[in-house]
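Can't attach files on this board, so I'm pasting raw text. These are the components:
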Amino acid sequence: MARIGVFICHCGENIGRTVDCAAVAQESAKLPGVVVSLDYKYMCSDPGQQMIKNAIAEQKLTGVVVAACSPRMHETTFRRAAAEAGLNPYLLEMANLREHCSWVHEDRPIATGKAVDLVRVMVEKVKRNRALYPIQVNVEPTAMVVGGGIAGIQAALDIAAGGKKVILVEKSPSIGGHMARLSETFPTLDCSQCILTPRMVEAASHPNITLMTYSEVEAVDGFIGNFEVTIRKKARYVDPAKCTGCGSCYTKCPQKKIPSEFDALLGKRSAIYTPFPQAVPNKPVIDAEHCTMLTKGKCGVCKKICPRDAINYEDKDELVKVKVGAIVLATGFELWDHSKYGEYGGGRLVDVIDGFQFERLASASGPTAGEIRRPSDGQVPHTVVFIQCCGSRDEKQGMAYCSKICCMYTAKHAMLYRHKVHDGRAVVFYMDIRAAGKGYDEFTRRAIESDGAEYVRGRVSRIYRRADGKLIVRGADTLAGRPVSIEADLVVLADAVVPRKGGEKLAQMCGVGYDTNGFYSEAHPKLRPVETAAAGVFLAGACQAPKDIPDTVAQASACAAKVLGLFAAPKLEREPIVARVNQNLCVHCRACINTCPYGATQDREIKDRQGNVVKVVAEVNEGLCQGCGTCVAICRSNAIDLDGFTDEQIFAEIATLE
Amino acid sequence: MSHTQQSELGARIAEQTGMNVLECYQCGKCTAGCPMAKYMDLTPSQVMRLCQMSDEGAKEQVLRSGAIWTCAGCLTCTQRCPKQLDPAAAMDVLRELSNREKMTSPQRRKILAFHKAFLTTVRKTGRMSEFPLVRRYKISSRDFFSDVLLAPLMVAKGKLGFKAHKIKGRSQIKTIFQTCADLARK
Amino acid sequence: MNSIGYYPGCSLSGGGIELDLSIRGLAQLAEVELREIDDWNCCGATAAHNLDHNLAIALPYRILALAEKQGLGEVLAPCAACFSRLKGTNVRLERSGDLKAKMQTIVDLPYSGSVKILSITEFLNRLMELGLADKLPKKLTGLKVAPYYGCLLSRGEDIVSDDAESPSAMEAALRATGAEVVDWNFATECCGGGFSMSLTDAVLDLSNAILADAKAAGADCIVTGCPMCHSNLDMRQLKIQSSGMGQYDMPVLYLSEVLGLAAGMGCDQLGLNRHFIPAMALAHRFDPPPQAAETAEAVSDQRSN
Amino acid sequence: MTQATTQTETKAEGFEPRIVAFVCNWCTYAGADLAGTSRLQYAPHVRIVKLPCTGRIDPLFILKAYEGGADAVLVSGCHPGDCHYTSGNYHARRRWTIFRRLLSLAGVEEGRLFFSWVSAAEGQKFADLINDVTAQVKAAGPFKHNPARRQAW
Ligand SMILES: Cc1cc2nc3c(=O)[nH]c(=O)nc-3n(C[C@H](O)[C@H](O)[C@H](O)COP(=O)(O)OP(=O)(O)OC[C@H]3O[C@@H](n4cnc5c(N)ncnc54)[C@H](O)[C@@H]3O)c2cc1C
Ligand SMILES: Cc1cc2nc3c(=O)[nH]c(=O)nc-3n(C[C@H](O)[C@H](O)[C@H](O)COP(=O)(O)OP(=O)(O)OC[C@H]3O[C@@H](n4cnc5c(N)ncnc54)[C@H](O)[C@@H]3O)c2cc1C
Ligand code: SF4
Ligand code: SF4
Ligand code: SF4
Ligand code: SF4
Ligand code: SF4
Ligand code: SF4
Ligand code: SF4
Ligand code: SF4
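---
Top answer:
Structure tokens for the assembled complex are below.
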């Protein structure tokens, strides 16, 4: 006979205000099988938990329903308490009276009635629960970090420092990401490359880190602790083992007019190239699209010149399989393409540039050696207009969200320009100044108060190029209540930070969700900011949301802590929510085998004593099964069931709703 | 179940156009692009702002402004508003109200006079013709002398219709005007 | 013979008469019959729209209902303002059944919503497809035109299907005449619209900026599809010049006039002699003048000075 | 909304429908949690049955729900491509196409079965969905052909 205990939580006023908890407890007491029914102010508090433990011991309960908050909040708390009192933790269920009832309804009688329903359903379910035992799985103590920007570098270094192996996968020829392209960085104005390159070098030389640049993730199989990843190493046409990075090849390559991605298309590079002088690894690759040897079979200069015979035109992509226990996604961001803004010239005005282009103009290693010169004619601009929120906070043509970093980098740009061009005029159009970090507001104020940037509060409506070459910027000064028109020589758009194009593919491979904009979703916006819905996959940096360097680094280190925590034990306990086959009922139609997304359903031969196969049936590999239940729904012989969500339990729930 | 609380003007705009003025975040892009803004006593974004406020002073300021009459209805603001609002349509609602509540700015009397002269011509004949319109406008606006030099030229070019075109369905038109006027009074 | 309904609108018998003349001429060439709506009324223009939102719908509603009664499936409204009011009314009626019912009681005529409204560019592009393109013997080679869309042919998402920031509806037709389209900035800037009389200074200012940019871009003329824009840019250009804001002598042609020229239609037939800023010289580059036209132009030249 | 509400009033005075929702644990259940955390108010006529994935839903669950007196059934899981289990919801969707046809054979009218996608981040969408489904079911009136039609919850 079932002996069920029901515990109704008031959550202070959170539930109690709209749900009459005492009444729910009284109603629940009348349900068949219920032997105790109590309500209490805070069930998750120590006395609350003690109440449950006492009841389990004194009343010899066979099942418990805690009617409180969402199981996503406290299910583990209460299951642990049950276990401490000697009850199998899987004999406890939660009814969600807070998130699904008291917080979403106002009418007290209606909410109370619904609360009773929710309890009834769970009482009927829990009567049919079975004792379950966690599943142990092995953990492969190697992590893969995808993306070699500052986020990926930091996460890799911290995991390596914790004594575990890391594979750092970067799709471009060098690690460094966007930070390597920045001139100086807010809020301290220190040189970006000066603080970044030591870390790049450290990552490359750390014995625990394997760098895989010019590589991309092709497939991810398996699950937490046991991922199997296929990585495509793209053909470099340069053997990194032989190459010393002497650079003779790229100085001699005749294809020199290729716009450099690293320089935001303002500079040029050759067909065999390293993206920038401090690249790590400092070994070139051949860009197969532009090398005339690879496209037309004509040239071969680099092979002739190379003192180490490192060039190999026959090089092919290579697929490598690795086993890892955890994955960190750190694939970063892109800038929004402002050619969608017809009113700002639709991308056709060459002197209307984006933030990265300005960074490269301001950078000592950039195409103008750090002098601010405009792209059209190389002149030093006398008036530069900076436009914030370009493509951000624009639900019509751009992104509805705030990109978070552009207020700061625009202030930095205005400052850098004023430091470099003393008689120049810097005008910043802004809507709000969002500078909520340590030293951030001081930084933007400095741009205005000491560095002479003219801040104008208002959005710009139009930019066009007058016949005399001046860019006419029509904006508004909403504080003064007037339209303003500025004659500019250069316009810098603070384009929105957007997710990488095609980033959904990687997310889907890993089972990670992404929001409507394409940023990867964390498991909880406040309390689990680096975990994802996929166990064992973590997020660092701007792939999760727009972020500056300090936030990126903090999140990357948090990822490392999570990974090291996971690797601390050799075995991992997993929820025992898995499917089971009843061999007597299975007719081996293989429907389940064909549908299981994890390949967890397999053939099993049943043999007699002599070892002859008498029957083949399906079997579930607990290690692989993730408990989705697809096989259960597909099996026409009712031969599979799912622990924790059995047909019996669900039919009981439905029946209770009658 | 929305908890939005609209001002009187905001509610009227919502009713007539479906727009929620509270969505305006005062970016000023409408003002920035408005060709007429420099002739306005309130900028388009200020007009939007005042419609968000529920005090009587705000309502007065908007309905007595010259700005609402200075708007040319060019839709530049609407086209570019990042919040997909329609300030041009808000202006329509406000003008109608300003006229009905007899609050029209004296500075923009000429514009109102022109519109009224136009509609009177249409009400009487069913169509607009330049000469009757101009005559009526000049009398009511007392703006007799501007453009007098243009008139003979227009005549020479065959561009100034002297005679009113009278359509057959004039009584229908009168009824339409009357019904709409009655509706407005409600 | 193809036929299309026609709503000339009030300005086409007065200030916009050239538009009416040239449209009719081109339709004839393309063998398209224009069937004018019987007893049409004024669409109410900006005035109704500003003073009474019911009237602003009711007046166009009567026009649409009459057109439907007459069995017109498509109706050309060459004036951009009329086009905008008529099509706008269609859109709003379609969106709200309540509004439709209300209008039916006010106007006392049924209207199912079947009439499709064509703008001048849509209409002319249609004529081109219907064979007008093959009937343009004169190549206007060397003519530099600045296509001017203004507000009503570029904006209003439900009404104009073109790209609001860089519209192109006139481009194809202009290129077919052999004219060269200049790259300029003011194709969609507002000219001050209906404020010609009531806020003249603003109109002079705005129109001046448009003329200045067209001149800087090297245009020989501005091409428009709206009588209101035309009167601001053409009629008011005299005042702009006399008040010293700028010297332009920039002819302002309707798109239909440009096509008419390429089709070899005579200046008088197109109404080119009625412009305030002489357009005849421009026309004569492609169409050597018969005597009479020259004198007419001489007269108008004198007057404008 | 307003239109639907007025219709309801004419259809069945005070009709309070019973709606059973089958939702997945990872997306829609979490989305419903977010609606709660954000205090978004919605109609109280829905009872949620939590499953690991929409792939777990056996068509029989739905038939049982009707049998038990539900006026409508709502199925909601992760967005396509966003499934916690990679492809469970894809399998589910494939099955629905066939199942819908069976339903109409079984006498279940159109508009008694709703599908949606609500992610963990879409609290507002969840609330809107519940209100929308409730309004539609109210407008359609009680599931009359359902012999087991019961009193309001
Ligand atoms: C104009 C501008 C100025 C800025 N100035 C500052 C500043 O002054 N101070 C500051 O704190 N912040 C600044 N920032 C922000 C700073 O750039 C970011 O915070 C930082 O770059 C985020 O690092 P990340 O590693 O997350 O991403 P990224 O720098 O984008 O690095 C991601 C890396 O992942 C790689 N990758 C992408 N997809 C894949 C894949 N599928 N497989 C393998 N590899 C992949 C990329 O190639 C790249 O190397 C600025 C940003 C901009 C746009
Ligand atoms: C009015 C208000 C509303 C807020 N609302 C939100 C919100 O809605 N969402 C949100 O995300 N954030 C909110 N916050 C911010 C949130 O409160 C903080 O982010 C969070 O509390 C910071 O946590 P903490 O652990 O760093 O510090 P604390 O919460 O301050 O905890 C520090 C602990 O350390 C103890 N302690 C201090 N000194 C010593 C010592 N020397 N030895 C031993 N123990 C010590 C203290 O007693 C305390 O328990 C809000 C803040 C305020 C003020
Ligand atoms: S158990 Fe949940 S509902 Fe109860 S007090 Fe704790 S948090 Fe609140
Ligand atoms: S020349 Fe040879 S060794 Fe030198 S950088 Fe090029 S590939 Fe490497
Ligand atoms: S073979 Fe290709 S990469 Fe090498 S030098 Fe020639 S063009 Fe450059
Ligand atoms: S950070 Fe500043 S500039 Fe960037 S979107 Fe937000 S408010 Fe706009
Ligand atoms: S679907 Fe059912 S019957 Fe078929 S093989 Fe799997 S368990 Fe056996
Ligand atoms: S529940 Fe079934 S389908 Fe899902 S992972 Fe387990 S074995 Fe595969
Ligand atoms: S553009 Fe739109 S959001 Fe911006 S101030 Fe104007 S109305 Fe408001
Ligand atoms: S519609 Fe009126 S307010 Fe809007 S931009 Fe045009 S003139 Fe300005």
